[in-house]
Amino acid sequence: MAVTGTVASCKPSTTTRRGNPAVREPVAYLRTSWSNDPFARCSYSYLAPSSLGARARTMLAAPVGDRLYFAGETTSSEAPSTAHGALESGRRAARQVIDAAEEGEHIVIIGSGFSGLGCARALVDEDYQVTVLEGRDRIGGRIWTQHIAGVPAEMGASWIHGSSGNVMTRILKEIGDPSYTFDYDNVTGEDDQAMRELARYEAKLEDAEDPNETTVASVMPRDPSAALRTALNINYPLEYAAEPRQLSVMATLEGRDLKGPDLLLPRGYDRILAQVRGGIPVRMRHVVTGIQYGRDGVTVTLWDGNTVQADRAVITVPIGVLKAATIDFEPTLPDAKQEAIKALGAGLLDKLWLEFPKPFWDKDVDVIEWFDPKNPNLWSWWVNGYKAFGKPVLLGLNGGDQAHRLARASDDEVVDSAMRALQHMYS
Ligand SMILES: Cc1cc2nc3c(=O)[nH]c(=O)nc-3n(C[C@H](O)[C@H](O)[C@H](O)COP(=O)(O)OP(=O)(O)OC[C@H]3O[C@@H](n4cnc5c(N)ncnc54)[C@H](O)[C@@H]3O)c2cc1C
Whose CA is nearest to atom 43 of ligand 1? Predict the structure, then answer.
């Protein structure tokens, strides 16, 4: 079984292009493809239309027989799909374990993302024996800080969303790292009229009779204009990693309100992760394929046939992995758990970081929006790394259908597609 992570490459492009000569070829790039990553199989969860509504998250979070505990962003009702929600969920699972466990028990934790490490830290602090099993050859899961042009290029989470009262902001202060306050309104290329039109439709979301089973698409026009499609793309696939037809209205209502601005981390998200981890050992390349549980404890089977015995297990793998059922549970998980796994969506958001010899774009904005009448949902939202980090880098994002389409393309094709968009934008 492959234990490599998300596709990430870095090399100069060889393609030559006509157009504005100021739009130079990139000298390096980093690309994600989270759906092709066997340890993620998605970027983050979303609430799909179902009779369960947001209850799907609490059903997934519920322990099974005081032996299996579940954490991870998908189990967070307060802050789903976020890094801080993941960390909080790991701490919540640790409290559940502590309530049930005898002193000094051995707890096995599957996954070393924020939820796994947050859980491990809380249990180690209470003197439990902890074994963290990680399938990849690195920690962090969907926190993965790479570097381009000497700046941290986040392949997973970039922002601390809602920095006031956020656990991530507290840790950032503890380690004394700087932050960059991101201003989504400092934007160029936004189609104000389309955004206003979208807001009028979105007002109808509040009136949906059954927000659990009604889709966001159902309150939108059936054949939106190209401009409205771009606005929809920015508010849904690029935020929820799923299309309006895949999202329930409840997906837009769940979770606690975020307070305070969003922050970027000029020194990298991995430094917060390292602070949470402390000195906790993680067994890398330990791919879990089976979990047997019963009154006497749990036996975790690894891909090479080896086993790990423990009193209890905390499972933090992403919803994409649970859906793919690459881990065999024995006995099979209760119906309620399986229903929750089925009902929750596995969304896709992918990133492309590009480094250029020098900036050719608007240097003073945080966001560059782009509306291509021929292909409205492609490369429609960019982060200006020059403003945030002082280096000539751009970050382009695609979500939902476009991200799935690009996930099937080669690196060269993805870079080429982005460069064609940039040529149009700056022609
Ligand atoms: C492109 C992208 C952009 C994002 N942007 C933001 C953002 O700006 N702000 C924000 O707050 N959040 C963002 N998120 C979401 C955030 O990254 C996640 O919610 C969070 O990191 C999830 O943490 P977790 O511990 O729940 O899961 P993970 O970090 O995925 O951890 C689960 C771990 O389980 C391991 N694992 C999986 N299967 C097995 C197995 N069989 N055996 C052993 N180990 C296994 C994985 O390797 C992984 O390390 C983004 C995510 C992505 C992908």
Answer: 135
